[in-house]
Design brief:
heterodimer; A: 301 residues; alpha/beta; 6-stranded mixed beta sheet; 4-stranded antiparallel beta sheet; elongated; B: 276 residues; mainly alpha; 13 helices; 0% strand; globular
Chain lengths: 301, 276
């Protein structure tokens, strides 16, 4: 069964269309990254899954249950790290986690959860006094309470230092290994790249692309590139390289030949350059997710 | 149960408010002073009809309650839902498996309980002081005062929470709640005269119609006093003068139940439909 099934969802706020006929499916056990520039509609999508916002048209189902009519049942099986939250009154970190455990009807050790996210030492401090990163860690601890089947994380690395971001990725991986489905939205691509099975790119309320990261690269026409710096580049070399199997593009800048190509063709490209002249440097890379993102979202607004 | 968890959380939070402690202490002291005065002076000195009695003490104490409860309910509850929406804590509450109804009901119960405590304490101490001075205790009347005061407290909190649920802005919530208070607790006299005047062809009649009794029960504080008359044995208040079917102090109970249920229901209806 699909963990999340969004079907034809449109959402209008007054005159603004936040989501336009969105179709999205997330399978159980997947780690799905939801990418998009600011204002694309990622948080609106999450709000609809949690019944914080009602769609203008279309439907959303979580574990086969309607996100609106059966919202409580949905939220019993879901752990959420929302965006735009505020602390609950004057409660401490520990009481926040206890509150979450109680709401989910789960036994669990609040301190163990706080320890997992790295804030066990401040468990009895009031959350209103926390820094942004500490609050974010607490929210993650609350999301993990009760070992939910689905984790919905909205911009989870906001406010986290690199250690915190790394810990977040580790936790996501641990949860996925446990069998949970993880759905998280981000505009920080390295975070997404490191953990996701599949990625969806949302732009202006539409899903511009959804695939594995490698799939997106292939669809974009190139999975990698090779840059060969040479002493001099013979004119005939360009034609030769272009003719190679797996090479999609060749360009020359200042003595460096850049070939967009499949990984398998990289060796052949370097070989032909080596045969044709003096090679001074070789660099290879994958098409970055950033390039893909930019190409799918039209260069950003 | 979910509303219980929300109620407990809200109760503990409201207990932290220094404003509530301050107002409560003032109210308790005031009740003691009032009871002391009532018990220490003669009826003529106080300008009270019918002599100093244990029942009279009840009504004397009651006069203190409506203003205290209405103002304090406003203070502790006007942001109860609008504030949580603004601050984002509602996002957390509703990301957990609580319903919006749990949130509304939980807040009414939690904050109502916080307000109920000083009311009960003040009544208990005031009753003790007054009864000691008078030398008599009107047990049934005091119990009636307790019951009616608790109903009034929860009804008022319910109104304010209901109003708070209608908007996402604390500014608008404060306007709605203060507006309610001013209209029903201060301006109602003018309003009821205005209604009579308008229905009488825009002139003031020589004798006011009987149904003005009903109009005067609409503010929660009016209903409170009337209902108290229903429960205290031997008293009927203004209702005794009226012959119509509504000429009964039990009308006060009906009105209080209306205030307990209706604004909260309307607030919930709006709240349940809203996008966060």
């Amino acid at each position: 069964m699909a963990a999340i099934d969004v079907s034809g969802v449109t959402k209008q706020f007054g005159g603004v269309t936040a989501l336009q006929n969105l179709d999205l499916t997330v399978e159980e056990g997947e780690v799905f990254g939801f990418l998009g520039p600011n204002g694309a509609g990622k948080s609106t999508t999450i709000d609809i899954l949690l019944d914080h916002v009602r769609p203008t048209a279309g439907s959303a189902r979580v574990f086969g249950m309607d996100a609106h009519d059966q919202s409580v049942a949905v939220r019993e099986r879901t752990g959420v790290l929302p965006e735009g939250y505020g602390p609950l009154g004057q409660m401490t970190a520990r009481t926040h986690v206890e509150f979450a455990l109680q709401a989910k009807g789960a036994d669990g050790d609040p301190i163990a959860l706080l320890d997992r996210v790295g804030i066990a030492e401040v468990s009895d401090r009031r959350v209103v006094d926390f820094s942004k990163g500490m609050k974010q860690r607490l929210m993650l601890a609350m999301a993990l309470a009760g070992e939910p089947e689905l984790l919905i994380l909205d911009e989870p690395t906001t406010g986290l230092d690199p250690n915190g971001a790394r810990a977040m990725r580790r936790i996501v991986q641990e949860e996925a290994d446990r069998g949970a489905t993880v759905f998280f939205s981000s505009h920080i691509l390295e975070q997404v790249e490191a953990v996701c099975d599949r990625v969806g790119i949302l732009n202006q309320g539409h899903l511009a692309a959804v695939d594995t990261i490698d799939g997106l690269r292939e669809a974009a026409g190139a999975t990698g590139q090779v840059q060969v710096t040479m002493d001099t580049i013979p004119e005939s070399l360009v034609g030769t390289i272009e003719g190679l199997d797996g090479v999609t593009s060749v360009s020359i800048t200042d003595g460096t030949l850049t070939a967009g190509c499949d990984n398998r063709a990289k060796g052949a490209v370097v070989h032909h350059c080596y045969e044709a002249g003096t090679v001074e440097d070789v660099e290879t890379s994958e098409t970055s997710l950033e390039d893909l993102f930019v190409s799918y979202t039209g260069g950003g607004a | 149960m979910s509303w219980a968890a929300v109620a407990k959380k809200d109760f503990k939070d409201a207990l932290r408010s220094r404003a509530i402690w301050a107002i409560s202490v003032v109210f308790i002291l005031l009740s003691v002073v009032i009871a002391y005065i009532y018990g220490s002076f003669s009826a003529d000195e106080l300008g009270v009809e019918g002599g100093i009695t244990a029942e009279g003490l009840v009504f004397f104490l009651a006069s203190n309650i409506t203003l205290f409860v209405s103002i304090t309910a406003l203070v502790i509850a006007y942001k109860s839902i609008a504030g949580e929406r603004e601050s984002g804590s509602l996002k957390i509450l509703l990301s957990l498996p609580h319903t919006r109804r749990d949130v509304l009901v939980g807040k009414i119960l939690g904050r109502g309980a916080v307000l109920a405590i000083p009311v009960v304490v003040a009544l208990a101490i005031g009753a003790a002081v007054g009864s000691a001075l008078i030398g008599a205790v009107a047990v049934q009347a005091l119990l009636a005062l307790l019951v009616v005061s608790l109903l009034f407290t929860f009804a008022y909190v319910s109104v304010i929470v209901g109003l708070s649920a209608m908007t996402e802005s604390t500014t608008r919530a404060s306007m709605l709640t203060i507006g309610f208070f001013v209209l029903f607790e201060f301006l109602w006299g003018i309003v009821s005269v205005g209604i009579v005047w308008a229905s009488n062809g825009f002139s003031i009649p020589n004798t006011f119609p009987d149904w003005i009794f009903v109009v005067n029960q609409v503010p929660p504080s009016g209903a409170y006093t009337t209902f108290l008359y229903a429960l205290v044995p031997g008293q009927t208040g203004n209702a005794a003068d009226i012959d119509a079917f509504y000429g009964t102090p039990w009308l006060g109970a009906v009105v209080l139940l209306f205030w307990l249920a209706v604004p909260a229901a309307i607030g919930y209806w709006r709240f349940s439909k809203a996008d966060l």
